[in-house]
Records
---
Amino acid sequence: MNGVYVLEKLILIDGNSIANRAFYALPLLSNSSGLHTNAVFGFTTMLLKLIEEQKPTHFLVAFDAGKVTFRHADYKEYKGGRAKTPPELSEQFPLIRELVQAFGIPQFELAGYEADDIIGTMTRLADEKGLDVVVVTGDKDMLQLASEHVTIALTRKGISEVELYTPEAIREKYGLVPKQIIDLKGLMGDASDNIPGIPGVGEKTALKLLHEYGSVEEVLARADDISGKMKDKIKEHADDARMSKELATIYREVPMEMKLDELQYAGYEGPTLGAMFRKLEFKSLLDKMDLSGGDAGAEGAEAIEVDVVERGSLGALADALADVEAVHFEIVGENPHVSDVIGLALRMSSGKALFVPADLLDAPEAEPLRRWLADEDAGKIVYDMHRTEVGLHWKGIELRGVTFDVLIAAYLLDPTESTHTLNELAGRYGLPAVPADENVFGKGAKFKVPDVGPLSEHLARKADLLARLVPVLKDELEKNEMNRLYYELEFPLARVLAAMEKRGIRVNADDLKQYGGELGKSIDALVEGIYKAAGTEFNINSTKQLGEILFDKLGLPVIKKTKTGYSTDAEVLEKLAPYHEVVSSILNYRQLAKLQSTYVEGLLKEIRPETGKVHTYYQQTIAATGRLSSQFPNLQNIPIRLEEGRKIRKVFVPDEPGWNILAADYSQIELRVLAHISGDDRLKDAFRNDMDVHTKTAMDVFGVSEADVDANMRRQAKAVNFGIVYGISDYGLSQNLNITRKEAAEFIEQYFAVFQGVRHYMDDIVRQARTNGYVTTLLQRRRYLPDINASNFNLRSFAERTAMNSPIQGSAADIIKLAMVQIAERMANEKVRSRMLLQVHDELVFEVPEDELELMKKLVPEVMEGALQLDVPLKVDVNYGVNWYEAK
DNA sequence: AACTTCACG
DNA sequence: ACGTACGTGAAGTTC
C-alpha cells in the first residue's frame, strides 16, 4: 500500500528443546578431550539447515533460565518427577551457547521464565509488526502459537527433519484451532512435565471432547451431558484440568525489553564459525563448508608475479606508479622509530607486483618514487599507515595520500584479537593465505631477512592481500555502522599520532641523571639497612629470596600466596609493616628502585641522541576498549601520585626556550559518560550543577547533607564510584576499602537504590552482551565478549564486568580521540606554532610559545569540551608551566 | 617465556 | 560455593 514491502523472517528456536532432541537423537559422540558433542553437533546441523533453507533476517535462540519458573509458584510439582538432565547433556549447554554466538545469532534467557514464554512473547511482538515467524521446537505445546504469520516447525524423528504446522495444518491433523492445543493438554495432561490432566483421558478422548465442546471450561460445565464413567472422572478432576490448562498456557507477556531490531541476523562469519568448529573438532563440517582457512601455508596458493625493481629500472617504475593499488612496507622491529625499512611491494591494478629493495629508496633515481609516496593526491592502500609513516620519517621519506589502512579496519572490527597480522586476516576473512612472517623471517635469534627472491615473493603476497582485503573490510565496517568511527576518528587520528611521535618531547638528560644520582644514594642507604635488619645480604629484587627472608627466616605471617610462592606485593607488605621494621624499608626500596630502573635509567636509554628527545610510539590497535597505549618509552605511566616520583615530570620540558608545557585534562570523564549513557537523573544533576561527584555520591548514599560528608565518607564514595566504572562486585569493593564483603554489598545496594538509572544501565548492558555477544561505545566501537555465557563463574563474571566497563572506558576514549583530531585540525587552520605532544587517556599535553598561551588556553578546552555532545557538560582543566611537573 | 610487581588513567 | 575490581607497559627474576 505504501512503498516496498520488505520480506522479513524471524526464526525463534527453543534452545533447550532442540538441544534435548539432538542429544537423544544422536549417538553419544565425544571429542579428543572427552567432551560430549552430539547435542552440539545436532544443534549445528539444525542451524545450518535453517539458515540455508529459511534465510532468516532475524534470529533468536531462547533458553530456559534456571530451574524455578513462575509456574512453580502455582504448582510446585511442575516438571517434577522428570529424570534429571544427564551430565553428558548439561555439559554441552555452554558449548551450545558458544556455538550460537559463533553463528552470530542473538540468544536470550530470563530468570523465572522458560524458553516457551520468551518465544511466545516474541511471536506476539513479531505478529504485531507483520514479520513472518518460524518457531523451531520439539514441543507440541508450542502449536498454540501458530497464526497467520507464525508457523511452528516441530522436529520429527530426531532433528534431521521438521514438520511445519500452520493453523490449517493443525486443523487438518487435529481438527482444532491453535488455541485449543492448550485445552487438549489441559484434558490429557503431559507426563513429561508432570501435568496431570484428567486420568484416563488420552489424546483420542481429549480430541473427541474438544470437537464436541470446544474448550476445557465447556467440557467441565457440561460434564453432565457426558455418559458413563467419563462423567465422574471429569467431575472429580475438574480442578486438575483447569490447572493443567493454565500450566500449558504459554505466557506471552514476558517483561523483556528486547527490540526486534536487536534480533537482526546478517549471517555468520566463516572464520569465527570455523574457529568454533575446530574447537569442537567438527572436521566434516569444516571441510564441507570450506572454513579451514588460516595458515594453510603458501603451497596451495597461486604463485604471484613479482618483478624486482633495480636501480636501472627506477625510471620505468615512475611511469607505473599511477597504477599502484596497494603498498606494503616491510619495517622490521617493534619500534618504528629505530627500525629498518627492508623494502616495499607495490601491488598494481593488473594484479602483478613490483618489489623495491630498501637500499634503492635513497638513490637519486628514486626521487619520483619518493615524490609519489609523499603525494597527497596519489591514493594508496597500506597496512599500518601510522607505523609506516614513522619508519619512513627517519629515512627522510614522507608518506601521504593513504586512502585506507587495513590494520585499523581489522582492529575496529575486532579489537579483542591480540594481533591482526596479514596472515591472520587472510584466514579471518577467507582470502588466499599468506605465510606468517615468522615462517619467512624466523624468530628470535634466528631472525634473518631472506634472499630477494623469497622476500619479494612474500611482500608481493602481502601487498596483494591488502588490495583484496579492502572491499571486505569496508563492507564489514559499513555493516557494523562504523564508518564514522573509522573515517572521522581512527583513520585521521593515525596521522595525528604519527606527527606527535615524530616531534617527540624534550627530556632534560642532565637533570634526570642528577636525580638518578640522588636516588642511588637513598637506595644504597636503604639496601644497607635492609641487609642489616635481615641479618644477611640477598637480592631484594627477587621475590623468592625476599619471601624466604620475610616468611621463613623472620617468621612473619603469610598473608597471600601467588602461583609460585609467597606474595610480597605492596598490599601484603603494608600489612606486615607492624611486625618488623625491615618491611617499611623494603617498601621504600621498592618505590625508589622502580623510579630508578624504569623512569631514570629506562627513560635515559630512550632519549635519541640526534634530537635530545624521547619519541614514544602509540599503539592504536592494541587496547580492547579503544584506548591508546604508549611504548618505547611508555609516557602514559609517568609517576604523579607520590611526590617523590612526580618529580620525574620536571625533566619533561618544552623544545624551545621560553615556551611552556600546557596540560589539559578531562574532569571525571568516565562518570560523565556513565551519567550520559545510563541517563541517571541524579548523576546528571550532579554534573549539571558542577558538583564534586564523590561528595554528591556520599550525600546520596549516606543520606546526609553536604556539610556532613566527612573525608572518610567521601573516600568510600569515591571507591564506590571507581567500582561502578569497573563493573562493580562486592568482593572487589571490599578489597579496596578493606571492609567485609557484606558491608561492601550493602554499600553497593545503597548506591543502586539511589542511582537507579545506573543500576538499570548495568543490568541492561549485561543483557545486551548476552544477546548480541558484544557491547558498543557511543561511537559504535565494539567489544566482543565470548565468555558472557560461559558456565565457568569466573570467566562469566569477568565478561560481565567488562561489559559494564568497556562502553564507559571506550566512550571516553572515543571522545578524547575525537578531540585530538579536531584540535590538530584547528591548530593547523590557525597556523599556531604550538604542538600537541602527548595523550594520557584523559589528558593532552602541548608545548606552547608564550605568545600563544592565551589562544591555546582557550582553544584546547573549547574543542575538548565540545568534541561530542552529551547530556551532561564535559569539563576540562588547563594548567601550564615551564615543565610537565609545573603544569598542575 | 612466564611470573611478579608496580607505574599510570 | 566460586574468588577479581577496568585498561595498559616495563623491569627484574626465575625457569
Note: The first strand of chain A starts at residue 9 and ends at 14.
---
Amino acid sequence: MSKVEDWYYITVRDRIFKVRQSPAYLEFDGVSKEFLMYYFALDEPYSTILTQINKDPHINSAIKRYYGLRIIRQDPWECLISFLCSSAANIPKITLNLEMLSRAFGKKIELNEFEQYSFPNPGELNNYEQILLAKTGFRAKYIKIANSLVSEDFLKSLRKLSYGEAKQTLRNIPGIGDKIADCILLFSLGFTEAFPIDTWMKKILQKLYFKNKVISNKELSAFGAKYFGKYAGYAQQFLYIFARNSMAA
DNA sequence: AGACAGGGGTAGG
DNA sequence: CCTACCCCTGTC
C-alpha cells in the first residue's frame, strides 16, 4: 500500500482501492463494501477473539497497547510470492522485489491520479531472467517453480483442507517451510490458528514464557497452538508487534 | 571509501 | 544442529 495525503492506496492484483479512517467511519473508494469487509476481516468476532487469546498479563498489555490491530485477508497468490521474497530479507527489500516484479510482469493500472503496476497472475511469472532482475537472488528459482505449481484452483482447494493438511500442501512447494506456510495460511486464507514463528516471535516467546531459555521453533509452535487456541494467529500478531517495538535491535 | 554483518527462512549437509 | 544462499542496507 502507499499513503498519498491522508488516503491509503491498496493494490490487489489488477485493481486499486483507497481507504481512510475518519473518527466514526471507514471511508473507501474503488471496491464494494463486501470486498472491504472481507479484506480487512471485519466480519470476525473481534471482541470474542481478544477475550479468547487474553491468557495472561503479558499478552493483555500487548492487546491494550495495540487494540484495533487486525489481520487482513490478502490475495493468496500475492501473499505466497511476497513471502517467498521474505526469507533472509527485510521489509524495504521485499517491497523493492514486489515493485520490480510488478513492473516487469504487470500492466499499468490507476485509480484517480494514482498509478501502479498490477501484480502478475499465477502462470505469468514465467521468465527466470526477469525474476532475477527484480533482485530476488536465490529466491528467484522458488518464484519460478511456484509460478508453475500454483493456480487459482490450487489456492482455492487449500481452503477446504484442515489447517495441518493445508500447511503440509504448501510446504511441498520449494522455498516454503513452516514459517512461510503459516504466514500464507494466516494472512490470506483465514486460518486463524496459524502461529508463524520468526526470529521476533522466538525472542519474545522465550522471554515471556520460557524464562529466556532457548526453545526450538517446533516447540514454540506447539506452545502457541495449545496455549492460545483457535485464534492463536491473533495472539501472534499482538506479540509480534509488541516484540518489534519494544525489543528493537 | 571499502569491508563487513545481518536481515520477518529454507534446503541440504 | 549448522551453514550457504542473493542482495540491500546500516555500521565501523
Note: Chain A has three domains: 2-39, 46-67+195-247, 76-188.
